[in-house]
Design a protein that fits this description.
By secondary structure, the protein is mostly helical. It folds into 2 domains: 72 residues, no CATH class; 163 residues, Hypothetical protein af1432. The protein contains 10 helices and 4 strands, in the order ββββαααααααααα. The longest helix is centred in the middle third of the chain and has 21 residues. The N and C termini lie far apart (51 Å).
Length: 237
């Protein structure tokens, strides 16, 4: 039997099989692009695939017969397009691409527990550092304040080109404007992005230190209950 090209692995491209860190224990977890989720062998946590790509299975009437029952996230198509645009901006900067995808992964978990607008949270996660190259080019610095200046216009154009509504675009841009400074926004969507970003950056910012000091930093920095729980398990257990 000839398989549908959309699901046939012979037609897959580099990057369709990738690795992300488990938000529960930090161990590497390999995903295939069409896997909705996978159970971490280290800690047992069920990890959702933030880059799910079901190809033709998202619209084909024979999808269930081909690959079984599927329940794709309604935001998947938008996220896929945002990821494509993010990768185009970062070009060969794989470190920035991987960081954005890791933040997206963590944000998805916090979102599931804390609630919020999935499109806003995921778009902000994908695009939160989108101005970093412009900041480096114009200001010779990757400092947070310059990202907050340079990022929103780029993100706004990307989202407008994808026909996202003005309310969503404004909210995402405000999150990007504040994602280092937290000056004038405190929505749950912002809190989720803040915590997801810190889950990736925390080890680099606060290397070493005893558990008590780490626990105090976690309580001071993280804004959601779920984010604090994840940080405690990862860094202070």
């Amino acid at each position: 039997m000839v398989r549908c090209p959309g699901q046939d692995q012979r037609f897959w491209k580099p990057g369709d099989i990738f690795e992300l860190k488990c938000p529960g224990c930090g161990k590497g977890l390999e995903f295939w692009k069409d896997e909705p989720d996978r159970k971490c062998r280290s800690c047992g946590k069920k990890v959702r695939n933030p880059r799910i790509d079901l190809g033709c299975a998202e619209w084909c009437q024979y999808a269930e017969q081909c690959i079984g029952s599927i329940t794709p996230d309604g935001t998947a198509a938008i996220c896929d397009k945002l990821i494509t645009q993010m990768k185009a901006v970062f070009d060969t900067d794989q470190k920035r691409i991987d960081h954005a995808l890791s933040v997206l992964n963590h944000a998805g978990y916090i979102l599931a527990d804390e609630g919020g607008d999935p499109i806003v949270v995921k778009a902000a996660a994908i695009l939160h550092d989108i101005g970093i190259h412009e900041a480096e080019k114009k200001h010779n610095s990757a400092a947070g304040k310059y990202q907050e200046i340079e990022g929103p216009p780029i993100a706004r154009q990307i989202m407008a080109d994808l026909d996202l509504d003005d309310k969503t675009i404004d909210h995402v841009c405000k999150i990007i404007t504040n994602h280092h400074s937290a000056k004038d926004i405190d929505t749950i969507e912002f809190q989720i992005l803040w915590d997801a970003d810190w889950l990736i950056n925390f080890p680099d910012e606060f290397a070493g230190g005893d558990k008590d000091a780490t626990a105090k930093r976690i309580d001071r920095i993280f804004k959601t209950k779920t984010g604090r729980q994840m940080a405690t398990k990862l860094f202070a257990a």
